[in-house]
Amino acid sequence: MRCCDVEALWDEMREGVQPRSEHVLAHLRGCKTCQDLYEQFEGVAYCLSCLPIVEPPQNLVPRILEHIKTYRERFKSAEPDSIARISSPLGTLVIAWRGRAITFVGIEIRDFEEERRHVERRLRRSALPADAPAWVKDAVKQWFRTWRVDLSSIDISELTEFERAALRKAAEIPPGEVRSYGWIAREIGHPHAARAVGQVMARNPVSLFFPCHRVVATSGRLHNYGAGLEIKARILKMEGFRESTKA
């Protein structure tokens, strides 16, 4: 199991999927990177445990419950997305759209029904199988022809302001070049938020079109990618990645 798989698993656990803690533990026992991160967080947890206990405000629990209720109602009442599989030079893509805007793009790594459920959890609303319209197919063809797409046809309006800023900055990276998480953090005015930028890229719902594959570690190492580092390297090679452009 890759580190990006663990991140995806935690995302699913937060979104209500049955936890598979034994898989996480098995991964931790064999992954030096995750072990190092675990030690760091363990130290933070110890420091937090030494702080005095502070009673939460009396109105906190009702506010949380009200937020959960509102969120559930939004999920139930939201207009569903349409979802389809589309062939591409990179393999089969899973694309969701609503109205005239694309809301999700991913490389198929599971069977379609699993991918559909994953998209529903990611978008927090229903996704119904449909035939991809011509404009969606044309967007895919355009991207593989020019490595760019009309971003006005992509909907990331439900992301946070920080997430939108990070993804839009990633879209400014020229095809065939890479920039670091730290570079994006500095460019969007949050110089100490490189790790947060990494989380945005890991949870990018419109990969390829908002090119998180062009974002790497400060050392130039490719780092995590939802579909696997091999795919990330392959996309960059297809774009004409030049080694001297690392940042």
Q: In terms of topology, how is this protein built?
A:
Elements: H1 3-14, H2 21-30, H3 32-49, H4 60-77, E1 81-88, E2 91-98, E3 101-107, H5 112-123, E4 127-129, H6 134-146, H7 161-170, E5 179-180, H8 181-187, H9 194-202, E6 215-216, H10 229-239
Parallel strand pairs: 1-4, 5-6
Antiparallel strand pairs: 1-2, 2-3
Helix pairs in contact: 2-3, 8-9
Structure at a glance:
The chain has 247 residues and is of the alpha/beta class. The chain has ten helices and six strands.
Describe this structure in words.
- This protein is α/β, with parallel strands linked by helices and 247 residues long.
- The protein has 3 domains: 3-49, no CATH class; 60-153, Double Stranded RNA Binding Domain, CATH 3.30.160; 161-245, Arc Repressor Mutant, subunit A, CATH 1.10.10.10.
- It is built from 10 helices and 6 strands, in the order H-H-H-H-E-E-E-H-E-H-H-E-H-H-E-H.
- The protein has helices at 3-14, 21-30, 32-49, 60-77, 112-123, 134-146, 161-170, 181-187, 194-202, 229-239; strands spanning 81-88, 91-98, 101-107, 127-129, 179-180, 215-216.
- It has a 4-stranded mixed sheet with strand order 3-2-1-4, with helices on both faces. A two-stranded parallel ribbon has the order 5-6.
- A hairpin with a 2-residue loop joins strand 1 (81-88) and strand 2 (91-98).
- The radius of gyration is 19 Å and the shape is globular.
